[in-house]
Fold Phosphate ABC transporter ATP-binding protein.
Amino acid sequence: MNDMRLMERVVDDTRIKISAKDVQVWYGDSHAIKDVNIDILDKTVTAFIGPSGCGKSTFLRTLNRMNDTIPICRVEGEILLDGENIYDRKVDPVQLRARVGMVFQKPNPFPKSIYDNVAYGPRIHGLTRNKAELDEVVESALKKAALWKEVKDRLTAPGTGLSGGQQQRLCIARAVATSPEVLLMDEPCSALDPIATAQVEELIDELRENFSVVIVTHSMQQAARVSQKTAFFHMGNLVEYGDTTQIFTKPSDPRTESYITGRIG
Ligand SMILES: Nc1ncnc2c1ncn2[C@@H]1O[C@H](COP(=O)(O)OP(=O)(O)OP(=O)(O)O)[C@@H](O)[C@H]1O
Ligand SMILES: [Mg+2]
């Protein structure tokens, strides 16, 4: 099979996981996200890039209803997860967030042990039948997050006692422990050193085999390394969305070009 046909087959394998339709977000009177339409693919890493304040985090939070927790925030439009609107009244946001997990820029471990942080999701969602199964899920999540070796002898120590970079990897382990279908990551590597960053990037690439990953990043290098699709936001608008290689080599909008070449942002 020649390369082109192979590419086509690979593209056929990916399907739409999340479809955002006419999404608007307001904080009070301030219009933070303006009429965004985007299809996010399954088994794909999608990078959200754009200057500070353009709405990347705000839009990311619409994808698992994290904006519900901000009283002045109002979301309009539809976010379809496997075709079902997550803003529908019958959707339970807690169940939703087990399917669409999130890792924040600032690590936020619970004031619990390392073990209990990772076991939290599987416990509240009843994902394991006994202690041995839970132990296995915790170990596997910590391994995926490249933290196991550092913490395996102190699983009962508080998660808040870890270094910043370790805390972030703990939060990644906590998020992957429920085997989410979609993982949202808001600048997950900003507190990490280059080694941990490389490990997290490797994890993101592994997760892509089974899940959809959306990552907000200020690093063009990181976006180019880990993502297959890139969305460029500017002042609340989704300016351009396409294959990462195309966005970085032949952007079609002058605003994208200015940003990736370092002239704005
Ligand atoms: N909780 C909030 N209350 C009021 N306004 C907010 C809130 N969060 C964000 N905003 C505003 O919404 C706009 C988009 O912010 P957002 O945090 O989504 O940007 P961002 O692209 O993630 O920026 P950065 O790269 O700095 O993280 C900004 O004008 C910001 O001030
Ligand atoms: Mg942000």
